[in-house]
Batch of 3 targets.
Target 1
Amino acid sequence: MESYPDLVREMRTAKRFAYAVFAAFVFAALPLYIFIFHLSALELSVALGPVFLTVAAIEMFSRWEYRMRRRHAYPHLLGYRLAAIHQFAQACHEAAGLLAQFLCPQAVVVAWLEEDGQELEPVAAYGMPEGWLPSAPRITLAARSMKEAVDRGRVLTKPSAEGDPWFAAAHPGACVVYVPLRSQDRPKGLLAIATSDSNHITKDHRLLSSLGMVLALALDNCRLYEGERASARRLQELNRMKSDFLITVSHELRTPLTSVRTAAEMLLEEEEKRDSGGIRARLARSIAKGANRLTALVADLVDVSREDEFAPRLELEPLPAQEMVSGAVALMNPLLAAKQQTLSVEIADPAPTVLVDRRRFEQVVLNLLSNAHRHTPAGGRLDVRISSRNDEAIIAVTDSGPGVVEEERELIFEPFFRGDRSGMGLGLAIAKSVVELHNGRIWVEDNPEGRGSTFFVALPRHVVKTPAVPASTTA
C-alpha cells in the first residue's frame, strides 16, 4: 500500500535522478562542445538556452506528475485507512490527522450536519488550541455562499479568516477553504481548512473535492453502522422483554388451567357414569379436551420464550386430514353455537393422508377456525374443505368476515401482529411455524364473492408404499 511519505519520497527521488542525469550530460558534453566549436561568450549563452529550458521542463513535469499522483493517492489512502474504522468519532479524528499530513495546513476542522440540516457541529479538529473542540461553536447555513457550497458541492475559498467563528481567533492571518462533504448526492457535513496563501496543495480544488467525497462516504457508513448496531441492541432488548412477558403469562396461566382441567376431568368422569352420550357429557368432554390443549399451548409459549426459534420436536404419524379437522371442529362447536354460526365440512373422496404431528397440527386447524370464528359476525358461515392438488393435501378454511387487506397478508403471520387489535397476535404465527416444520405452506386469499377470506394450508401427501409380494415359484 502506497503511503503519503512514500509518494513524496518517490517524487523527490525521481526529480533528483532526472536532474543528475541531465547535469552529467551537460557537464560532459559542454566542454567538448566549446572546445570543438571555439564558442564565444555570446554563442555560449545562446547554447545554454536549451539547457535552461530543459531544466524548466523537468520542473514543470515533476510538479504536474506530483499533482496527478497526489489526486489519485491521497483519496485512495484516506478511504483505505477509514474503511477499517466503524466508530464515527474515531473515524473523524483519524481523518483530521490524515488530512493534516496530506494538505500541510495550519488547522483542519471536520463538521457534521445536524438532523435538521441547518447547523454544522464540529466533530474533529487538528491544529486548534487544546480543549477547543468541546466548546466549539456551531455554524448555521444562513450565509448564502456557505449554503451554496454545502448544497451544491462547491469548494469555497475565503481570503481571510476574519469573522470566521472557528479560525478567526486561533489563525487570524490564514485563508480558509470550505470543502463540502456529500454522500449519496446529499449534503452531510463540511471540511474547513485554515491554510497559508502560499500552500499550493489546498489550491487544488479537484483534490479537495475527491477527499471530501471519500471522507463523506466513510463517515456516512460509520453513522449507518452505528445506527444498525443501535437497532440491533433495541431489538435484543425487545426480544428479552417479550421472553420475560411470555414466561410471566405462562406461569400465571398454569395455576388456573390446572384447576379447570382437574375440575373438567372430574365432571367428565361423573357424567360418563351417568350418561356417556348425553349433552352434558359431550360438553364436559370438550372442556377437558380444551383445557388439555391450553396446557400444551402454555408449554409452547414457554418454549417460544426460551428459544430464538420455535422448533419443537415432532412426533410424526400418517393421519387422514379429516381426523385433524374433526378434532378441531368438536372443540369449536360450543363457540360456534354461542354466536349462532354454521360450519360446513367438505372432504374430497378419497380423503388425503399426511404425515404430521397430530396434536400440533390439530392446533393449526384450531387456530385457523378460531381466527375465522372471531372475524365472522353472529349468524355467519364458516366452511372447511379438504382436497388434493398434485402431490399436496390442501385444507381451506373460509370465513364471511371483513377480509384481510392486501398490505397485511404477510404481516398477519408475524408474531405479535394484531391487525384488528384483538388477541395476542400469536395464533397465525404459531400456525405458520408448525406448517413450515411439516414442509408445508400457508397463505390467505380473498373470497371470489368479495366478502371474507380463505386461509389455505398445503402439506405434502403421504403415500403408503405396500411391499411387493414375491411371485410363488414352483419346483
Target 2
Amino acid sequence: MKFAHIADAHLGREQFQQPFRYADYVEAFRKAVERSIRENVDFILLTGDLFHVSKPSPKAIRDAIEILNLAKKRNIPVFAIEGNHDKTIRDTSIYDLLEHLGLIYTVGIKRRPRENEFQRSIKKGSAYLVYGIFGDVEIYGIRHHSRWQLVGKDGRSRLKALFHGKRNSILMLHQAIDYLAEGTPYQNAFDLRLNEIPDGFSYYAFGHIHMRRELERKKSGFTGDMIYPGSLERTEIREASHRIIYDRRIRAMDLTRSNENFGPNAKGFYIVEDFEPEFVEIETRPFYSITIRGNSKEELRRKIEDIRSYVERDSIAILTLEGIVKGGIHVSEFFSLLEDWGLAYYNFNNRVTSEAILIDSSIKEEEFFTAFERELFAQLAVDPKEFGRDIEGFVSWLFQMYEKPKVEAEKKVKIEEEEPKGKEKTEKTKEIKEKKVKKPKKALGTLDVWIKKGGGK
C-alpha cells in the first residue's frame, strides 16, 4: 500500500501581487500530482488549503480541475479535508463542486451520509462521520476548526471523543499542534496540544503549518508518525530557500540542504509506503532572505553590490537593511542597484535607525502587561487574513474572558437595588439568587451540532 500526502497548495495566490507567482503555485501542485502518479500510489491525501481563498477565481478552479483529473484518469482516488483558507461559514464550499465532479472524496462531519466505493458513514447524533476507505485502510479526518471548537471548557479533547484509531487507519487534520509549531507563526497560537490528539492511528497526515515537520512514533509514543509536508511553495520569508547575512563578512546558507539530507526549508510532499513516510522534494523558484548591516548609506550600497554573485537570476530576493545611519534612509534610494540583476521580484525592508535606542533587558513583560493582556497578544499573534477568517473563534474566547466579571457585576447591581420588606424581601432575594444569566445564541456548525446532541460525551 502506497499513498501521497500533499498539503497547502494555495492555488490562486498571486504572492506580492505578481502574476508569475500564480503560475508558480499551480506548477508546484502539478509537479506533486504528476510525481505521485509516477510513483504508482494507490491514493492521494490533500490535507487542506488546496485553494488560497474560499471563493477561488474561475481560473484557479479550472487549474485545480485539470490537475486533479490527472489522478482521476488513472483511477487514483483523492481524499481531502478543508483548510482554513478553503472552508466557508456554510456547510458547502468549493470542495463540493470538486466532489460532485468525482475529483475528490471529502471526509469529516456531514449532514448527509455518503456510501460509495471510497466512502462510508457513521451516524453521530443528527450528523454523519464520513470517512474514506481503500482496501483495508480507513481514512478519517475533519476540516479546520478553532481551538475553542476542538477542546471543551472542561479541557477535554472533542477529537478524542469523535475519533478512535485502529490498525491501518489514517487521521487527517488541518490544525497547528503546539509541539510541532515551534519556529512558525503558530507557535503561540496553536490549535491543539499534542496530548489532545487521539491515539491509535497508523499515520497522522497534517496540514496548516507551512514548514516541513516530522515527529516519529518512537519519539512521540503515538502509534503512527505525525507529518506536516509544509506548503508546496514558499509563502513567506521564513520559508526562504537561501539566507544571506552580511555584517562583517558574508554568510550564505542553502536552507534546503543540511549536510547530505534535506534542509528545514526544502519544499515538497511525502510518499508513504506501508505507513513509512519519505520526503519528495519539488524544485521551486529560489527565494532569498538577505540581511545587510551597515552604518552609512555608502556601506550599505557597497555591501549590496558585494552579494550580487550569491543570488541566482530569476529568483525572489527580500533584502532587510539594518544599522544606524545619521538621518536614516529611504529604501527607494537602493532599488536602482538591483535593476540589472535579472531578478523575478525584489523588495526591501527598512530596519535602519537614525540613532541608537537603548533597551533595558532586565525589564520583564509582566511589569507592563496583565495576564489577560498577554493572553490577548497571543490570540492576536496570527496573520491578519487568518485572524479575519477565524473572527468567530476570537469573539467566542473574548466572551468567555468577560463572562465571569459580567455576571458578578450584574449581581452587584441587583443587590444594590432597593430591597423589599418582609416576605416580599425573602422571595425577591431568592429570585435574584436563582436567576441565571442567559448567553447569546450562536450559529452551530456541523461539529457543534454533533457536540450539542451529546456526541462529545
Target 3
Amino acid sequence: MYKIHCRLLLVILLQSALLATAQVPVTSRTSKTGTPRRAAPATLLQSGPMVGYSDSREVALWVQTNKPARVQIRYHEAGKPSPAYLTSEVQTHEKTAFTAHLLANQVEPGKKYAYELLIGGQKVSLPYPTTFQTQNLWQWRTDPPAFRFGVGSCTYVNETAVDRPGTPYGNGYEIFTALNAQKPDFMLWTGDNTYTREVDWNSRTGVLRRYTHTRSLPEMQPLLASTHNYAIWDDHDYGPDDSDRAYWLKPVTLEAFKLFWSNPNYIFDEGCTGTFTWNDCQFFLLDDRTFRAPDAMPDGPEKTYFGEKQMRWLIDALRFSKATFKFIITGGQIVNPSAIFENYAVYGTERERLFNALTEARIPGVLFITGDRHHTILQKLDRPGTYPLYDLTVSPLTSGPAKPRPEELKQSTVIDGTLVTDRNFGLLSVSGPLNDRVLNIKVYDQKGIQRWTRDLRAAELK
C-alpha cells in the first residue's frame, strides 16, 4: 500500500511539473538561474508609435503591439529632460487589435516635447525622433504662428498573396521618407488610407488585419512618430470599391477607423465626420460614404452624398467658425463639374444645394481638399457675386496613378500647370499677419522633387 501511494504521489508531482513547464510562453527564454526572461520590448511592437491630435492642454498618442502588453508614454519638454511625465498605462488586447490610445495631459500651450515608448515598463529604442507639440495660445496676444501640413490620399501596400495578379498596384513607399523630410506640423490623410481586399471586407478579422498590414509599413513609421495625424476615409478604407450607405459591414470598418486613428472628435455616432483647429484655421472632416446613396441612382433630392444631417451640421459649423481659412476635407472631387466616376457632380442636386448654401450664408474663407482620383490638380469655380471656390485634389501616395479624362481637362475650372499624374503629396503652409494670411500650396513627387507651387491670399476668399 505504501509503495502504491509513493508511486501515485510521484505521478502527480511529474504531471504538475510538466503542466507548469507548458504554461511558460514559447517566446520566453530562461536565464542561467532558471528564471523566465521577459520578451524584449521592441519585439512586442507592431506599429507606431503615432502622434494623434494636438491641442493646448492635451495630445493623443497611439501604438500597436503584436500580443497583449502594457504600454505607456514617458515625455518631457524638448531640451529639458526633467521633469518627465507619464501617461496612464494601457493594456492591449486581441479584441481591439492590440491597439492603445494614450493621452499626454500634463502639457503646456505652445511647447515641443520629446517622448519615449514603454512596453512592459521598458523603453523601446527607436532609430528616429519621437516628438510632439501643443498648440499655441496666440489669441489676443500675437498674430497666429505660421504652420504647414502634409496632404495625401490613396495608400496601397502590396500583399502578393491576396492582390490581383500582375503588376503590383502599390509602389513608391519612399514617398513617406520624402514627406517626413519636410517636417510638417501635421498630416491630413484624405481617404483610401488603406485598401481592403476581397478577403477583408466581409469579416471583422479581415478588416483589422488589413488596417494592421498597412499601418505596419516600415517607411511610414518615422512620419507617424513625430507628425500629428488626422484622417477621413473614402471607399477603400470604408469598404469595397465605390461602396455607399448600403455596405453591410460599415459599423465594423468604423470601429477599425476609430481604433487606428486618433481624431479629436466624432460628430455623429455613425461615420467619421469631425473637425479640428490649428492656429487660425479650421478643418472640417467630412464623411462621403456613410450617408451616400448609390452612384447609379437617378439624380434628385433623394440622392444624397453627404446626407441631410451632415450637410446641416457643416453649414452651421461654418457659420460659427471664425477661422481665416476653412478647409473642407472629403474624398471625392467637389468643384470638378464633370459628372463621371464618383465626382460630386454625379450628385448634382445636392451639390447645387451646398454651393447655394455657402453663397447665401456669406461664409468667407472656404476651400476644399480632396483625393480619390489618383492624380493631383487644382480647380477653381467662379461664382457670380462672391469669391471663387477652390478644390485641391492630391492623389495618390502609393497607389497606382491615373490620368483624368480628356473632357475633364477642357473644363473651365482647371488651373493650368497643376496636373500631376505621378505619385505625389501636398505641402500647404499658412503664414503672414492675421489680417493678411497667405496659403502656399506646394506639390512634391515621391522622390521629394517639387512639381509646382501656388499662393492663395485669404483676402481673395471674401
